[in-house]
Amino acid sequence: MQREIKEMKLDPPPNCKAAPKGDNLYEWTATILGITGSVYEGGVFHLDILLPISYPFDPPMVRFVTKIYHCNVSRSGKICLDTLYDEWSPALSISKVLLSISLLMNQCNPYSPLEAKIGKLYLLNRKEHDYQARLWTKRYALHKRIALHCIALHYILIIIST
Protein backbone atom coordinates (compact mmCIF):
# COMPACT_ATOMS: atom_id res chain seq x y z
CA MET A 1 0.00 0.00 0.00
CA GLN A 2 2.78 2.41 0.83
CA ARG A 3 4.19 1.87 -2.67
CA GLU A 4 0.79 2.83 -4.14
CA ILE A 5 0.59 5.97 -2.02
CA LYS A 6 4.12 6.97 -2.97
CA GLU A 7 3.44 6.33 -6.69
CA MET A 8 0.33 8.53 -6.60
CA LYS A 9 2.21 11.33 -4.84
CA LEU A 10 5.39 11.27 -6.94
CA ASP A 11 4.20 10.14 -10.37
CA PRO A 12 0.42 10.29 -10.76
CA PRO A 13 -1.16 9.73 -14.17
CA PRO A 14 -1.95 12.93 -16.09
CA ASN A 15 -5.03 14.76 -14.78
CA CYS A 16 -5.49 12.24 -11.94
CA LYS A 17 -4.96 12.14 -8.21
CA ALA A 18 -5.86 9.66 -5.51
CA ALA A 19 -5.21 9.05 -1.84
CA PRO A 20 -6.57 6.99 1.02
CA LYS A 21 -9.53 8.42 2.92
CA GLY A 22 -8.01 9.25 6.28
CA ASP A 23 -6.24 6.34 7.97
CA ASN A 24 -8.11 3.59 6.11
CA LEU A 25 -5.72 2.29 3.46
CA TYR A 26 -8.49 0.22 1.87
CA GLU A 27 -10.77 3.17 1.06
CA TRP A 28 -9.49 5.75 -1.40
CA THR A 29 -10.87 8.80 -3.10
CA ALA A 30 -9.75 9.84 -6.57
CA THR A 31 -10.22 12.73 -8.97
CA ILE A 32 -9.92 12.73 -12.75
CA LEU A 33 -9.97 16.03 -14.62
CA GLY A 34 -11.67 16.15 -18.00
CA ILE A 35 -9.06 16.46 -20.72
CA THR A 36 -8.88 19.69 -22.73
CA GLY A 37 -10.68 19.32 -26.05
CA SER A 38 -12.82 16.41 -24.83
CA VAL A 39 -16.54 16.44 -24.07
CA TYR A 40 -15.54 16.34 -20.39
CA GLU A 41 -13.27 19.39 -20.56
CA GLY A 42 -13.40 21.44 -17.38
CA GLY A 43 -15.03 18.63 -15.43
CA VAL A 44 -13.80 17.44 -12.06
CA PHE A 45 -14.86 13.82 -11.67
CA HIS A 46 -14.69 12.18 -8.26
CA LEU A 47 -14.40 8.43 -7.78
CA ASP A 48 -14.46 6.05 -4.83
CA ILE A 49 -11.99 3.17 -4.71
CA LEU A 50 -12.43 0.21 -2.37
CA LEU A 51 -9.55 -2.21 -2.10
CA PRO A 52 -10.39 -5.76 -1.09
CA ILE A 53 -8.34 -7.38 1.67
CA SER A 54 -6.89 -9.62 -1.07
CA TYR A 55 -5.59 -6.60 -3.07
CA PRO A 56 -3.46 -6.63 -5.27
CA PHE A 57 -4.46 -10.20 -6.11
CA ASP A 58 -8.05 -9.08 -6.68
CA PRO A 59 -9.05 -5.83 -8.41
CA PRO A 60 -10.21 -2.70 -6.65
CA MET A 61 -13.87 -1.74 -6.80
CA VAL A 62 -14.03 1.66 -8.47
CA ARG A 63 -17.09 3.80 -9.13
CA PHE A 64 -17.79 7.34 -10.24
CA VAL A 65 -19.31 9.50 -7.52
CA THR A 66 -19.76 12.38 -9.96
CA LYS A 67 -22.46 11.77 -12.55
CA ILE A 68 -21.01 11.30 -16.03
CA TYR A 69 -22.69 10.83 -19.41
CA HIS A 70 -20.76 7.84 -20.69
CA CYS A 71 -21.93 4.58 -22.23
CA ASN A 72 -19.46 2.53 -20.17
CA VAL A 73 -20.47 4.04 -16.82
CA SER A 74 -23.82 3.17 -15.23
CA ARG A 75 -26.07 5.70 -13.54
CA SER A 76 -24.85 4.31 -10.21
CA GLY A 77 -21.22 4.95 -11.22
CA LYS A 78 -20.19 1.37 -12.02
CA ILE A 79 -17.48 1.24 -14.71
CA CYS A 80 -17.32 -1.30 -17.53
CA LEU A 81 -13.58 -1.75 -17.93
CA ASP A 82 -11.82 -5.09 -18.51
CA THR A 83 -8.94 -4.02 -16.26
CA LEU A 84 -11.32 -3.97 -13.29
CA TYR A 85 -12.59 -7.48 -13.96
CA ASP A 86 -11.29 -10.19 -16.32
CA GLU A 87 -8.02 -8.50 -17.26
CA TRP A 88 -6.93 -7.66 -13.71
CA SER A 89 -3.35 -8.52 -12.79
CA PRO A 90 -1.51 -8.04 -9.48
CA ALA A 91 1.08 -6.12 -11.52
CA LEU A 92 -1.48 -3.32 -12.01
CA SER A 93 -1.85 -0.43 -9.59
CA ILE A 94 -4.31 2.28 -8.64
CA SER A 95 -2.30 4.63 -10.84
CA LYS A 96 -2.71 2.34 -13.86
CA VAL A 97 -6.42 1.88 -13.13
CA LEU A 98 -6.96 5.64 -13.07
CA LEU A 99 -5.01 6.02 -16.30
CA SER A 100 -7.22 3.35 -17.90
CA ILE A 101 -10.38 5.10 -16.70
CA SER A 102 -9.09 8.44 -17.99
CA LEU A 103 -8.42 6.86 -21.38
CA LEU A 104 -11.88 5.24 -21.37
CA MET A 105 -13.43 8.65 -20.74
CA ASN A 106 -11.97 9.82 -24.03
CA GLN A 107 -12.28 6.58 -26.00
CA CYS A 108 -15.54 4.89 -25.03
CA ASN A 109 -16.57 1.42 -26.15
CA PRO A 110 -20.15 1.72 -27.46
CA TYR A 111 -20.17 -1.98 -28.36
CA SER A 112 -19.99 -2.99 -24.68
CA PRO A 113 -22.16 -0.37 -22.96
CA LEU A 114 -23.58 -0.34 -19.47
CA GLU A 115 -25.95 2.37 -20.70
CA ALA A 116 -27.30 1.05 -24.01
CA LYS A 117 -29.14 4.27 -24.96
CA ILE A 118 -25.96 6.31 -24.60
CA GLY A 119 -23.96 3.76 -26.60
CA LYS A 120 -26.58 3.78 -29.36
CA LEU A 121 -26.64 7.59 -29.45
CA TYR A 122 -22.82 7.62 -29.69
CA LEU A 123 -23.01 5.39 -32.77
CA LEU A 124 -26.02 6.99 -34.47
CA ASN A 125 -25.82 10.68 -33.57
CA ARG A 126 -22.39 11.64 -32.30
CA LYS A 127 -23.19 15.36 -32.31
CA GLU A 128 -26.16 14.89 -29.93
CA HIS A 129 -24.15 12.46 -27.78
CA ASP A 130 -21.34 14.98 -27.40
CA TYR A 131 -23.83 17.76 -26.63
CA GLN A 132 -25.36 15.65 -23.84
CA ALA A 133 -21.93 14.73 -22.44
CA ARG A 134 -20.91 18.40 -22.33
CA LEU A 135 -24.23 19.33 -20.74
CA TRP A 136 -23.83 16.70 -18.01
CA THR A 137 -20.25 17.85 -17.43
CA LYS A 138 -21.43 21.42 -16.92
CA ARG A 139 -24.33 20.31 -14.73
CA TYR A 140 -22.58 17.77 -12.51
CA ALA A 141 -18.79 18.05 -12.82
CA LEU A 142 -17.86 21.71 -13.04
CA HIS A 143 -16.20 23.02 -9.93
CA LYS A 144 -18.38 25.80 -8.49
CA ARG A 145 -15.62 28.38 -8.88
CA ILE A 146 -15.14 27.43 -12.53
CA ALA A 147 -18.90 27.56 -13.07
CA LEU A 148 -19.03 31.09 -11.63
CA HIS A 149 -16.19 32.18 -13.93
CA CYS A 150 -18.06 30.69 -16.92
CA ILE A 151 -21.24 32.56 -15.98
CA ALA A 152 -19.31 35.81 -15.53
CA LEU A 153 -17.55 35.32 -18.87
CA HIS A 154 -20.90 34.65 -20.54
CA TYR A 155 -22.30 37.98 -19.28
CA ILE A 156 -19.14 39.84 -20.28
CA LEU A 157 -19.45 38.45 -23.81
CA ILE A 158 -23.10 39.53 -23.96
CA ILE A 159 -22.16 43.06 -22.88
CA ILE A 160 -19.30 43.25 -25.38
CA SER A 161 -21.43 42.01 -28.26
CA THR A 162 -24.21 44.58 -27.67
Descriptive overview:
With 162 residues, this protein is an alpha+beta fold. It has 5 helices and 4 strands, in the order H-E-E-E-E-H-H-H-H. It has helices at residues 2-10, 94-106, 116-124, 126-141, 144-161, and strands at residues 16-21, 24-33, 44-50, 61-64. It has a 4-stranded antiparallel sheet with strand order 1-2-3-4. A hairpin with a 2-residue loop joins strand 1 and strand 2. Helix 3 crosses helix 4. This is E2 ubiquitin-conjugating enzyme. InterPro entries: UBC, UBQ-conjugating_AS, UBQ-conjugating_enzyme/RWD.
Q: What key attributes describe this structure?
A:
Ubiquitin Conjugating Enzyme; UBQ-conjugating_enzyme/RWD; 162 residues; ubl conjugation pathway; single chain; alpha+beta; 4 strands
Overview in brief:
It contains five helices and four strands; from the N terminus they run H-E-E-E-E-H-H-H-H. The N and C termini lie far apart (58 Å).
Estimate the helix proportion, in percent.
40-55%
CATH topology type: Ubiquitin Conjugating Enzyme
Distance between the termini: 58 Å
Largest sheet: 4 strands, antiparallel
GO molecular function, one term: ATP binding
Active site: 80 (glycyl thioester intermediate)
Pfam family, one: UQ_con
Protein name: E2 ubiquitin-conjugating enzyme
Q: What's the topology here?
A:
Blueprint: H1 2-10, E1 16-21, E2 24-33, E3 44-50, E4 61-64, H2 94-106, H3 116-124, H4 126-141, H5 144-161
Antiparallel strand pairs: 1-2, 2-3, 3-4
Organism: Operophtera brumata (Winter moth)
Keywords: ATP-binding, Nucleotide-binding, Transferase, Ubl conjugation pathway
GO molecular function, one term: ATP binding
